[in-house]
Amino acid sequence: MTTYSTYRLAPASGRPQTPPAEIPEVDLMRWPDVARVPGGPVRAAVARQLLRSVARRLALRVELPGGRLLVPAPESAPTLRLHRPADFDRRVGAGGLIGFGESYQAGDWDSPDLVALLTALASSPGTLVPPRLQGLRRWHAQRTPAAELSSEENARRNIQRHYDLSNDLFALFLDPTMTYSAALFPTDLPILPRTEWDGLRPAQHRKIDRLLDLAGVGAGSRVLEIGTGWGELALRAAGRGANVVTLTLSEEQRNLARQRIAEAGHGDRVDVRLCDYRSAEGSYDAVVSVEMIEAVGRPYWPAYFGILDRLLAPGGRAVLQAITMPHDRMLASAGTYTWILKYIFPGGQIPSTEGLARAAADHTALRLTHRHAFGAHYAETLRLWRERFTTRAEEVAELGFDHVFHRMWELYLAYSEAGFRTGYLDVQHLVFSRGEENR
User: Fold this and answer.
1) pLDDT digits (tens, 9 = 90+) for 62-85
2) Which helix (H) or strand (E) holds 371?
3) Contact 231, 260 (CB under 8 A)
4) CB-side exposure of 320: number of CA atoms within 13 Å?
5) Which of helix, strand or coil describes residue 114?
6) 40: enclosing H helix or E strand
7) pTM
8) 296 with 249: CB under 8 angstroms?
9) Which helix (H) or strand (E) holds 259?
10) Smallest Cα–Cα separation from 64: which of 96, 108, 103?
11) Which residues of 329-350 are buried (b: 16+ CB within 10 A; e: fewer)?
């Protein structure tokens, strides 16, 4: 199993991004499943036919070496450019969408506009595989390894694999607030105008302030934050005069958050703890959590909401910022091991609003009382992150991360942006309060 520590090389001098066709060999020890091309000519042939079918149905342009096209398509169509078609077919045939992602990491394919291509593919995720082959999915799809389920024993390792990569890495593409979640821009248009980089910081503060307003946080409020990040929400709450306990499982985040809080003069108001949410104690007027519920896992939602119910003082509110997907898609994908789970967010589960509301109502006195969706704002946030990350390839290399890692994160950011642009993914502010307070 690939772990977070294997992603990083010894510090190296910066080097320009290598053209796709000239990508160096993949390190077998660091990236075993990317370095190896699986066998299986029959599955590879099926994958090629499936690609042909998808290209026709979605009007994709699939370019083969030498400029040939897999199927006729206009030049303006979203483009998948195959450099090593046979390797691509074998990876996809053996691993499905995991193989598709690993094939990009290996350099088997590229796209002149990765987001446009992934947006086309994400526009109808349930129909990429023809109906006659859907029944084979349960035999072919991988299941999430037990070692990555979000139990208390596994949770810290899962979090460390992503958030303990390097604070310096995240600082390369995040704005100065070091906020790693959807921003809220000053518009409600479905398609946001192109926003300059300098607009991201106030947009992150606008998002945080809205969360704190929804939670009723003010002077003297007792606030529990589940998922510290790098401390910006805790800083904003302390600036209002609140007393904050904030929990994280990332040592890298804890250390930098403590430093930032101390430098801002709020060390007396904010207590940053390396602690699982299941071990939280106390009584709070507000519990706030930003994009952490995705790491909880569906089997643990009842316990999660039970803990919120136990920790909230009378009249208190729990306010979550959650990435969500439609309920039917959540049910269809539950338990399936994906490329994102394998390489980016082990143990994760994107919830549905309906699923969270049911878990709270069935197991606690908490009820969903308010929701606000702003998925288009996340697409814009991700665009800014992706463009900044892509242009800083040399600095990523200087931190010791190799070309496979860079391509992995490039795909992750583009894939996420595409999900929000199509509406396959959304992000919402969800307010939960007790039933007797809602009558």
Assistant:
1) 999 998 999 999 999 999 999 999
2) strand 366-373
3) yes
4) 26
5) helix
6) none
7) 0.90
8) no
9) helix 251-263
10) 108
11) ebeeeeebbbbbbbbbbbbbbb
